[in-house]
Structures are given as C-alpha cells and as structure tokens.
Amino acid sequence: MQTTVKWVDGAMFLGESGSGHSVVMDGPEDLGGRDLGPRPMEMLLMGTGGCAMFDVVSMLKKSRQPLQDCRVEIQAERADAVPAVFTRLNMHFVVSGAGLKDSQVKRAVELSAGKYCSASIMLGAAGVEITHSYEVIDSAAA
After folding, report:
1. Measured over all CA atoms, what is the biggest interatomic distance in the chain, rounded to whole angstroms?
2. What's the CA gap between 58 and 73, in Å, rounded?
3. Average per-residue pLDDT in the chain?
4. Whole-angstrom Cα distance, residue 99 to residue 132?
5. Bridge partner residues of 133 (DSSP)
6. What is the pTM (predicted TM-score) of this model?
7. DSSP the chain
8. Which pLDDT tens digit goes with each residue over 28-81?
9. Pairing state between β 67-78 and 3-9
C-alpha cells in the first residue's frame, strides 16, 4: 500500500492514494488554512470508521441479513498536550433492515473490533481506549 501527501499551500494538503484517488485536507483559518477540507486527524477517524464499516457490512451480507442502512458514529477524545493523540473513542454502529437479527449485528461488530479492523486494532495497540456499541433499527416496524 502506498500514498503520497503533497503540500498545496497554507495548511492545505492533497493526499493521493496508490489506487489513484485524491482527497484534500485543510486546517482552520486561525492555523493558516482555508477550512476547505477535513483535518488530517478527522481523516484518521473516517478511515477507521470505513475500515470497521467494511467488516460489519461484509459480515452481515455474508450471513444474508436484510441490511438496508448502516452507519458508524465515532466520538473521540484527544490528549490536551502535544502530541494530541487520540486517548478514547467509541464506535457506535446504527444498522437498519427489515428483520435484522440482533445477534448477527452484535457478532459482526465484535468480530470487526477484535479480529478484522486493522485500523481500530492498531489504534488500540497504541493505547487508545476503544469501545464499541450498536443499535438495530427494524425498518419493518417503522
């Protein structure tokens, strides 16, 4: 895996992935940016959420669950001192479908957390306290 990050100007950077995709990252105006993109640390959280979501959605599809929608809401805390690393984060999965089995969603979240999500497992190994929660919304009842 490979990526390149280029400085554009001020506090703006352009990340280019090895697979040919680009993303703009930018800082707030008070730090020299123009606030035209997510912060690099926000990108780290989004990447972690995407990694975990990939696992959960894949497992629910493989277990033939009637998945209609899925999102992960991540709340993170950072250290007050430099480096302002993440100290805690909660990944809350909201999964909906008509007749989803709670046990299957729970299993998918647990497997992602403990075995498959490279990003969250790496952050946990670095000392970040990571918790996971989930809710199942039965769209047939709505």
Report:
1. 51
2. 18
3. 96
4. 22
5. 92
6. 0.92
7. --EEEEEEETTEEEEEETTS-EEEE---GGGT----S--HHHHHHHHHHHHHHHHHHHHHHHTT--EEEEEEEEEEEE-SSSS--EEEEEEEEEEEETT--HHHHHHHHHHIIIII-HHHHHHHHTT-EEEEEEEEEETTT-
8. 999 999 999 999 999 999 999 999 999 999 999 999 999 999 999 999 999 999
9. unpaired
Contacting residues for 56 by C-beta, under 8 A, at least 6 apart:
70, 72, 93, 95, 105, 108, 109, 112
Tell me how long the chain is.
142
Summarize pLDDT for 76-111 with one digit per residue, the tens: 999 999 999 999 999 999 999 999 999 999 999 999
List the beta bridge partners of residue 70: 95
